[in-house]
Design brief:
The chain is mainly β. It is built from one helix and six strands; from the N terminus they run H-E-E-E-E-E-E. The chain has a six-stranded antiparallel sheet with strand order 1-6-2-3-4-5, with no helix packed on it. It is globular and about 35 Å long.
Length: 71
Amino acid sequence: SVGADSNIAKFLINDSEEHQDYLEDLEIGTHFKLGQKIFRKGEKRKLRYICCDIKTNKNYLINATALVEKM
């Protein structure tokens, strides 16, 4: 699967969006925006990170190669 190799996924993703970073490039504890929600980056679990929604305090697993907006 393409998503299993982060280097291939990064190569195939169009980086035309400004002010966006890959989730895996942010430090743990960093706040970021994905869609309309604001999250805090947590620990890595295999290929995804446990991220906490700031508003609801719920945890989500988000792909390491997700394009996010650093806050």
